[in-house]
Design a protein that fits this description.
The complex is a heterodimer of chains A (93) and B (328). Chain A is of the alpha+beta class and 93 residues long. Chain A has two helices and three strands. In chain B, helix 6 (128-146) runs antiparallel to helix 7. The A-B interface holds A 1-4, 6, 22-26, 28-29, 32, 39-40, 43-44, 60, 62-64 and B 19, 31, 33-35, 80, 83-84, 87, 90-91, 94, 97, 102-104, 159-160, 163, 167, 306, 309-310, 312-313, 316-317.
């Protein structure tokens, strides 16, 4: 094997926030991936928790199916509160 | 530490997909799996790889002084900075890989000379003050170059640049601090600081690449939203930023033609000798051979570590498999 597998790295910057994708790295196994991720992406206290995920395990939507894949949401403006008219003077709604 | 793309063949664009042109027109970002012209992809791979290689090679001139830093404080700071450069290289290799290339191949191309790195790292670090001059001038120039790259049209490159730029300002300040301490020290320390600035000033100006009328790729890179400002504009911005800082240091810049031009609202400065830049790019700088041989040797000497890590990972995976099967 010429190159170690690729891992995607996610960092929780502080408690109360989600893990966010920050980049990727190569490592031979999960443990090394975690250690490398710590050294590469949290040198300045950027995180309190790390996830590493094998990049090959990620299933993604594709850009060419993009428009069609997401268009069910296009014609449903009534899902947004701004769609509705609220009579003058009505509060807390 | 540094990102630019010159000394390379001009790519011409042809057959650009509609979706790609729409993204550019909307000043939107292109992401890895979007359709993009081959020439755009190749240009980005070349530029990002060159940028990554520069970060990695850039560890050498400063690494040269880690064991001889004048205090524990300076040593800790310098180690942190050199470690950052390694990190910047890795962010950038990861960004390049989103374009469908392998990091191992890019390293091969660095090692066999098919891909370049920034010419600035082919100059030697002769004194401790050079570490200061690199931080102040070289990283200062890199910041001017890299800040606009945070808005580059290719998403992963732009995001890597955001991380790099956040870390880079510490690099510049620590360099400035080193020079400030020396320039306010003994006459010998002051002379050392001045000598370092004298040697690093012109090569720092060359980091922005050839002048606009001799930069065939700039127009295409700007049309693609990879490059946002011309070489000469960035060089001027760097001069304008640096001249007052030199005054604050009490050091002079080795260019008698530097003076404020009221009419232009910029500092005028002397002509850069670009024949030197091209000589260094061609491999004739003071340290080209040393940098490459050190890099190749480090890579080869590290082979056993990579092999051991792979062997260990495989052994652990086999044990895990045996345990799972045993349990089943």
């Amino acid at each position: 094997m010429r190159e170690w597998p690729l891992w995607e790295v996610f960092v929780r910057s502080r408690r109360g926030l989600s893990h966010v994708h920050v980049g990727s790295l190569h490592a031979p196994d999960a443990e090394m991936a975690l250690r490398n991720a710590r050294d590469l992406y949290t040198r300045r206290q950027e995180g309190v928790s790390l996830w590493v995920v094998p990049a090959a395990e990620i299933v993604a939507s594709t850009p060419d199916q993009g428009a069609a894949f997401f268009d069910p949401a296009d014609d449903k403006v009534y899902r947004h509160p701004t769609f509705y008219d609220v009579p003058e003077g009505v509060e807390h709604l | 530490m540094y990102g630019n793309d010159f000394g390379a063949r001009a790519e011409t664009s042809s057959d650009e997909p509609r979706s790609f042109l729409d993204l550019l027109a909307g000043d939107d970002r292109v992401e890895p799996r979007d359709e993009m012209p081959d020439a755009y992809r190749r240009t980005l791979v070349r530029q990002i790889a060159q940028h990554a290689h520069s970060e990695i090679i850039g560890m050498q001139p400063e690494g040269n002084w880690i064991s001889r830093a004048p205090s524990l404080r300076r040593k800790a700071i310098l180690m942190a900075k050199v470690q950052d450069e390694a990190g910047h290289g890795l962010y950038l290799y990861a960004a390049a890989e989103t374009l469908g290339v392998d990091r191992a191949d890019l390293l091969d191309q660095l090692h066999n000379g098919r891909q370049k790195y920034s010419s600035i790292f082919n100059y030697p670090t002769l004194t401790w003050a050079d570490v200061g001059a690199i931080g102040w001038l070289v990283d200062g120039a890199a910041i001017v170059n890299q800040v606009p790259l945070c808005r580059c049209s290719y998403g992963p490159y732009a995001r890597a640049m955001v991380r790099v730029c956040k870390e880079e300002s510490f690099h510049q300040r620590q360099g400035f601090e080193i020079l400030h301490t020396l320039s306010h020290g003994t006459p010998a320390q002051r002379a050392m600081a001045q000598d370092a600035v004298d040697r690093y000033w012109w090569p720092s100006l060359m980091m922005f690449g050839p002048p606009d009328d001799d930069s065939p790729n700039s127009a295409q890179s700007m049309a693609w939203g990879i490059k946002r400002f011309s070489n000469d504009d960035l060089r001027q911005r760097f001069v304008d930023m640096t001249v007052p800082q030199a005054e604050a240091l009490g050091l002079t810049l080795p260019d008698p033609e530097i003076r404020w031009n009221e009419e232009r609202g910029h500092y005028d400065f002397g002509e850069v000798d670009f024949t030197e830049l091209f000589e260094v790019i061609q491999g004739n700088g003071p340290c080209n051979a040393q940098r490459m041989s050190h890099r190749v040797r480090a890579h080869e000497d590290g082979a056993w570590v990579r092999e051991a890590a792979s062997a260990y990972a495989q052994k652990q995976a086999e044990k895990q498999l045996a345990r799972t099967e045993g349990a089943a």
